[in-house]
């Protein structure tokens, strides 16, 4: 009866349960790596830089379009200003600040990621991290719960019940329990 107190054997499936978590971790790390290594804009030509900036700025006269797609006279003038400032070597952020100083913050098609408006970007990320941490904590605690092991008295009770009903574990003609 020394086996009554031995811990349950781990099966090969315990490693398989972790496979989705490892796959998700690999996907997240790969996504972050792609985002970090493709965010550099140093290889863009001045025309590509100007076009990228024009796509982020709203046309002052036709609110639904960007400066890059609008044919309104104010959009054409603003495109010329952007191209001239890119040729002078100004950064995208400097050009956006100039345009915002002239037209107000509503001119940007992409909301700012800092200050109070930045909360719109960061609160969902923070909530996602909290939800992920809660799920990990829940499953970790659930996994580590002590599962009650049957005692020797429990095994004897089951053995007696099986013997009385002739089920598996009941003694055969030789007196040995059948499996």
Q: Given the structure, what is the number of helices?
A: 7
**SS-based class:** mainly alpha
Question: What do we call the CATH topology of the domain at 43-109?
Answer: Helicase, Ruva Protein, domain 3
CATH architectural designation of the domain at 43-109: Orthogonal Bundle
Descriptive account of the structure:
This protein starts with 12 loop residues before the first helix and ends in a 14-residue tail after the last helix. Among the domains are: 43-109, Helicase, Ruva Protein, domain 3 (Orthogonal Bundle), CATH 1.10.8; 113-140. Helix 3 (46-55) packs across helix 4 (73-87). It has 179 residues and is an all-alpha fold. The protein has helices at residues 13-17, 19-38, 46-55, 73-87, 92-103, 119-144, 152-165. The chain is 57% helix and 0% strand. The chain contains 7 helices and no strands.
Core attributes:
179 residues, mainly alpha, Helicase, Ruva Protein, domain 3, 7 helices, disordered N terminus
Summarize the structure.
With 179 residues, the protein is an all-alpha fold.
Strand-helix topology:
Layout: H1 13-17, H2 19-38, H3 46-55, H4 73-87, H5 92-103, H6 119-144, H7 152-165
Helix pairs in contact: 3-4
């Amino acid at each position: 009866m020394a086996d009554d107190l031995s811990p349950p054997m781990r099966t090969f499936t315990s490693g398989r349960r972790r496979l989705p978590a490892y796959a998700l971790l690999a996907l997240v790390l790969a996504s972050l790596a792609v985002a970090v290594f493709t965010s550099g804009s140093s290889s863009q030509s001045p025309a590509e830089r100007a076009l990228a900036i024009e796509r982020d700025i709203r046309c002052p006269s036709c609110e639904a379009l960007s400066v890059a797609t609008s044919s309104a006279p104010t959009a054409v003038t603003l495109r010329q200003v952007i191209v001239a400032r890119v040729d002078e070597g100004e950064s995208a952020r400097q050009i956006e600040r100039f345009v915002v100083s002239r037209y107000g913050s509503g001119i940007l098609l992409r909301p700012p990621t800092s200050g109070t408006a930045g909360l719109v970007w960061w609160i969902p990320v923070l909530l996602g991290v909290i939800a992920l941490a809660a799920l990990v904590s829940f499953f970790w605690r659930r996994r580590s719960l002590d599962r009650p092991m049957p005692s020797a008295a429990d095994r004897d009770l089951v053995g007696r019940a099986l013997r009385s009903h002739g089920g598996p574990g009941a003694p055969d003609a030789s007196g040995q329990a059948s499996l």
